[in-house]
Prior knowledge:
Layout: H1 2-6, H2 15-22, H3 27-32, H4 40-43, H5 47-50, E1 57-62, H6 71-81, E2 87-92, E3 119-123, E4 141-149, H7 151-159, E5 166-173, E6 179-183, E7 189-195, E8 199-203, E9 209-212, E10 222-225, E11 242-246, H8 257-264, H9 266-269, E12 275-280, H10 285-297, E13 301-309, H11 321-333, E14 342-351, H12 355-366, E15 370-378, H13 383-397, E16 407-410
Parallel strand pairs: 1-2, 2-3, 3-4, 4-5, 5-7, 6-8, 7-9, 8-10, 11-12, 12-13, 13-14, 14-15, 15-16
Antiparallel strand pairs: 9-11
Amino acid sequence: VDAINTDDRISKLQNDLLVKILSRLSLKEAMRTRVLSNRRVHVWKDVINDHHGHLEKCTIIYYPYQCEDGMVEAWIRSLIHVKHIKHLTLKNFICPFRPNPTITLDLPPESFSHPPLDSLTLSRYNIETSHAFDNCWNIKKLELTGISAGVGVFNVVLMSCPSLEVLVVDINCHKGRGLLKIENPNLKFLYLSCYSIDAIEVSSPNLDILTIGNLLYEKEKVVIASPRLQFYRNYWTTLYAHISYSISCPDQEKKSIGHEFLMRRSRDFLSEFASMSVSVDLANTKEVEMLHEILAACPREMEELEILFKKSNSPRKVETSIARTQKQFWEETKPFSHANFSAYTVRLSNFSDSKEEFTLVSRLITQGMVGKTMLIKPSSFSPSNKLEIEGAVANLNELPKGHRELDIVMV
């Protein structure tokens, strides 16, 4: 080691020359040079300021004791206002060998309001005021994980970001208690995990995905005003995590931002022994593909799966090209044939025994994706429809079951 250090002429250069050399590397490579010698432990930090051009994405994870000189605040200003960063992640890392004081993120007003900044993730901070979030019309994705603040501060932060489409809230109210209000007409994806908060109100008419983490409240303490989401029961009163998802894709060429976010972070939001409520139009092949992706990403064992069958308002004719395409899709693509999950209980709501519904349900049964009970609720209770559903249930019971003890009943 001494011989190598003796010949390390680059580390003997002045800081400005070292920075000039490092600035010709990528940021990732420049940061990795800090392990080469004690001289370079801090020199690489100047590379961010000397880097030419804009940055698309940056993640900074650090120990509190490393940044007592305002360096992180300086980086934030540089990344947002000089480098025009689009996706910024800041994480206060827990050090197991040193005291870990709570870091208060104290930034000037409108620090996060620069137009290019589209996505912001903050982890393990204390926030005393909402000033840094003033006029944040630009932010479409906000993740607050392990954040501690007063409930009033949280409310103002969320009101200051009216363009949010994805919101992850994992927070703790440390000053008093109160009502957390989430009102946003653009929100598509919402994750909730809250501590020391009296009650929660969500009003988001376009919300497609609601993920409930650690959220144990009495029934009346949580109000969800999101008409696209339908619940069999109030899942925030249970001990296990839950996802409610109204699958929709107005544009057949692309999937929603909420769906893309959920699939990209499925390990974070799809937990074992959780429950899921999904509404889907099986006549829409794109929605079926999205449902297939969700179930394929599910962990091996789930507590409960609820599927609500949406009905298309447009008339369906067997002779149409759309109908032929749907038939080809179900016969050749064979969705759900190889899904690797199992739910102890499966609830089927608005069941009408269409070909698509019978095909899906039969695959759930024969592939062993239902562990104990399948409950089928008909779309209507007219005498003729009741007889059809009873016949369908009888046919389903005749299928070879992946689990012998499976009980299939109409409710």
